[in-house]
């Protein structure tokens, strides 16, 4: 059975790059353009094994999304990888405190992301 990864980023071209890397590694990918759209899709019926999320997005940023998704019983144990341009220690600490399992800074190597997904995907 294929594992499903949700990719949340406001850049459609960036989501495509991530999606292609993950599909090449045999993952099914569900996309969302921001945290608000992602929460709408994560209604308890969608099974995801891992979430890859940007920090800076319109409507709902990644850290707000992370805090909210971790309150939902269906998704509170789903690992979240933050994939962002943010590299400040304070942001990383905020992400860890909110439940992020990994923090990858853009630009990134697709193989680095796939390695992290392979390790964390439940």
Automatic annotation (TrEMBL):
<dbReference type="Pfam" id="PF00072">
    <property type="entry name" value="Response_reg"/>
</dbReference>
<keyword id="KW-0597">Phosphoprotein</keyword>
<protein>
    <submittedName>
        <fullName>Response regulator</fullName>
    </submittedName>
</protein>
<dbReference type="InterPro" id="IPR001789">
    <property type="entry name" value="Sig_transdc_resp-reg_receiver"/>
</dbReference>
<dbReference type="InterPro" id="IPR050595">
    <property type="entry name" value="Bact_response_regulator"/>
</dbReference>
<feature type="modified residue" description="4-aspartylphosphate">
    <location>
        <position position="54"/>
    </location>
</feature>
<dbReference type="GO" id="GO:0000160">
    <property type="term" value="P:phosphorelay signal transduction system"/>
</dbReference>
<dbReference type="InterPro" id="IPR011006">
    <property type="entry name" value="CheY-like_superfamily"/>
</dbReference>
<feature type="domain" description="Response regulatory">
    <location>
        <begin position="4"/>
        <end position="121"/>
    </location>
</feature>
């Amino acid at each position: 059975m294929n594992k499903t990864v949700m990719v949340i980023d406001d850049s459609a071209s960036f989501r495509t790059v991530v999606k292609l890397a993950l599909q090449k590694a045999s993952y099914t990918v569900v996309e969302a353009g921001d945290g608000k759209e992602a929460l709408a899709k994560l209604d308890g019926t969608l099974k995801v094994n891992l979430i890859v999320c940007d920090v800076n997005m319109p409507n709902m940023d990644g850290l707000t999304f992370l805090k909210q998704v971790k309150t939902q019983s269906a998704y509170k144990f789903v690992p979240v990888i933050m994939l962002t341009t943010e590299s400040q220690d304070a942001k990383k600490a905020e992400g860890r405190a909110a439940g992020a399992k990994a923090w990858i800074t853009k630009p990134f190597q697709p193989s680095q992301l796939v390695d992290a997904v392979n390790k964390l995907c439940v």
